[in-house]
Amino acid sequence: MNKNFRKMLSLLCGMVLVITTSAGCSAGNSSSSNGDQQAEQQEAANNGTDAAQEEELNPEPGAKLIVWDGNDGISFLNEIAKEFSKKYNIPVEVQEQGAPEQMQKMKTDGPAGLAADVLVLPHDNLSEAVAGGFVLPNDFFEEETRAEFNETAVNAVTKDGILYGYPRNMETYALFYNKDLVTENDLSSWDNIISFSKTYNDPSKKKYGFMMQLNNFYYAYPFISGYKGYIFGDDNTNPDDIGLNNEGSIEGMKYFQAMREILPMEAADATTDVKTGLFQEGKLAINMDGVWNIGNFSDLSFEVGMVPLPEFPNGEQPDTFAGIKAYYVSAYSKYPNAAKLFARYVTSKEALLKNFEMTGFIPARKGMENEPGIKDNEMVSGAIKQFEHSVAMPSIFEMQQVWAPMANALELIWKGEDVKTTLDRAVENMKQGIKTLNK
User: Fold this and answer.
1) Cα distance between residue 390 and residue 411, in whole Å
2) What integer pLDDT is reported at residue 354 of this predicted model?
3) What band does 263 get if pLDDT is binned at 50, 70 and 90?
C-alpha cells in the first residue's frame, strides 16, 4: 500500500466516522519496498514539516477537541492550542489529567463519549492502551514521524510494528557534577570516578564523591547494559528469554557491588531526597539523576555540568533507560482527523522548541540539538549525548514483573550477597510472576 493510497484511505475513514460517529477504521501498515520507504523518509527529512501536505488531512466539519496532559505540560498546551485553533478554526479545550488518571478514565469515559481526543502518555503505558483499544495508529503521518524523530523515540511508541504515538520529549539520566569539585578527567571513566571519590569522601561530614539510587533498577540498568546483559531477548520483546542472570549481567552487578567501597551506606538510604539535598549543598560531587532536574540545578551557588555515563573497564559505554512521552489519538474520538492534525501540529519543530522554552522538555525530534537555546545549554547538550546511548524501557506487560525482584536483588547485592545466586533467584521470581500474569 503506497503512501498516497494510505492517506486517501485515512481521509475516507474520517468521512465514514463523521457519518457513523464510530472509530476503528485505519489504513494499516505500508508494504512498500525498503528502497521506496527510505527514499520517502529522506524526502520527508529534507523537507521538514510540509504544511501543504498536512492540509491534505481535512478535519471533520464541526470538529472540536479535548486534550489531556499532566500539570507540567498544561502551560504549553494552552498556548499552542490557541495557535492551532486560529489556523484551523477548531476549538481545543485543554484539561489537566495525569497519565494514571488518563488510563483509568479511558476505560470509563471513552465508551461514554466523554474522553479526550488527544492523550499524553509515557511510552510504558502503550501496551495497556493498545490492549484496551484506547488509541489509534499514527498512520497518516507515519512516514514523516519515522523520518523526523529519534529512532529510540519512534521504537518506543511502536507496538507490534504499528506506530501509535507522536513523540514529544525524551527523558533519561546522566551525570550531574559540581564544577567546583570535579574535573572532566574525573568523569572520563568509572575507574576515575571511583579514584576521585576515594580522595573526596568524608562520610562523617556527609561528603560523597558519587551517589545514585542503589535499589532502583531504572538507575542500575547501565551496569547490566554495559556488560552485555539484557532484560528480554529480541530487543526486549521476548519475555521467554530473560538475560538478567547471564554472564554479562553477573559481571556488571559485581562491578556495581564493588562500588560500595566509595558509597558506604545502605541501599535504602540513598534516596532521591538525600542525594538531591547533598548535591545542592555542595557535599555531593557527582550525582546520577534524571534530566527533569536540569531546571532545579540551573540556579545553584556553583556551576553544574552534565555528561553521559563513561565507559566501564571493559571499554563499553553503557546504555541508560529512556522514557518517551508522546501524544496519542483516542480511538473514541469523533474527530480523528482533527485530532491527528493537532498531534502533528504540536510535534512540529517550532512547537517542540516552544515547548522546550516553556517547560524544559527535551525534544525527541532529530536535529533539535543544533537549536541555539538547546545547544547553548550545557546540561541539555549532555543529556542529548546520553540519549544517543539509551534504550526505551521495555513496555511489554511482563516488564512489571521485573522491577520488584530486581529492587530486592540490588539491596542484597549491595549488602554483599553472592551476585549469581541473587540474580538466579530474582530471575526465577520473574518467571513465576510472568507465568501467573499469563494464566
Assistant:
1) 24
2) 96
3) very high
* Three-class SS of 176-213: EEECCCCCCHHHCEHHHHHHHHHHHCEHHHCEEEEECC
Beta strands in 75-228 (DSSP E): 92-96, 118-122, 158-159, 162-163, 166-171, 173-178, 208-211
Contact indicator for 253, 423 with CB cutoff of 8 Å = yes
Nearest to 222 by CA among 368, 354, 21, 410: 410
Question: Percent of the chain having pLDDT more than 70?
Answer: 87
Beta strands at 284-290 and 208-211: parallel, antiparallel or unpaired: parallel
- State the average pLDDT for the chain: 89
Residues 69-90 pLDDT 10s: 999 999 999 999 999 999 999 9
Grid coordinates representing 341 are: 492534525
Q: Are 51 and 22 in contact (CB under 8 A)?
A: no
Query: Phi then psi for 380, rounded to 5 degrees?
Result: -65, -40
In angstroms, the CA 262 to CA 197 distance is: 6
Q: Which parts of 140-296 are beta strand (E)?
A: 158-159, 162-163, 166-171, 173-178, 208-211, 232, 238-242, 284-290
For residue 7, name the pLDDT band (cuts at 50, 70, 90): low
What domains lie within the chain, and their CATH numbers?
A: 3-171+323-392 (3.40.190.10), 173-322+393-437 (3.40.190.10)
Cβ-contact 316, 227 below 8 angstroms: yes
Q: Is 170 within 8 Å of 152 (Cβ atoms)?
A: yes
Amino acid occupying residue 1: M
Q: How far is CA 422 from the centre of its chain?
A: 29
Closest CA to 324 of 104, 84, 120: 120
Answer for the pair 244, 399: CB distance below 8 angstroms, yes or no. Answer: no
What sign does the CA torsion over 16, 18, 22, 26 have?
Answer: positive
Nearest to 359 by CA among 427, 414, 305, 291: 291
**Per-residue pLDDT tens for 172-214?**
999 999 999 999 899 999 999 999 999 999 999 999 999 999 9
